[in-house]
Design goal:
globular; 15% strand; Carbamate kinase
């Protein structure tokens, strides 16, 4: 489903239709962000997850979680197992853009950041909360 009208390619995004597809156990792929300028794909993904009443946002990246500094540059960078949304914002950790983080925080939607390049990464991260970093309400670790 697309936020932009491209009917020859896919169906236009309408929330109730997306919910209907999910209720019928269909896979729904959301495309074209929000259809508005100035919003990142992170914000669009969080917005759609909130609209669909998702349980969690699974953010696949090129690293295995959130670190206190760039692990490519700093071999001593510390990976966080769990963080709060407020810690992400206060420490200016580059998990997602601030708008996406605030959307998740305000809607109590946890997120997990994990490495997409690992074989079977998504199902493993979905089944094992110790994979990657989980961002939740309240205090992190």
């Amino acid at each position: 489903m697309s936020a932009l009208r491209i009917n020859r390619v896919c169906e236009e995004y309408i929330q109730r239709r997306a919910v209907h597809h999910l209720e019928r156990s269909r896979v729904v792929i959301f495309a074209a962000g929000t259809g508005n300028p100035f919003f990142t794909t992170d914000t669009a993904g969080c917005l759609r997850a909130i609209e669909m009443n998702a349980d969690i946002i699974m953010k696949a990246t090129k690293v295995d979680g959130v670190y206190d500094s760039d692990p490519v540059i700093n071999p001593d960078a510390k990976r966080f197992e769990t963080l709060s949304f407020d810690e992400v914002l206060e420490k200016d950790l580059k998990v997602m853009d601030a708008t996406a983080v605030v959307l998740c925080r305000d809607n109590k939607l946890p997120l997990r950041i994990f490495n997409l390049n690992d074989a079977g990464a998504l199902p493993k991260a979905m089944q094992n909360p110790s994979i990657g970093t989980t961002v939740v309400m309240g205090e992190g670790k």
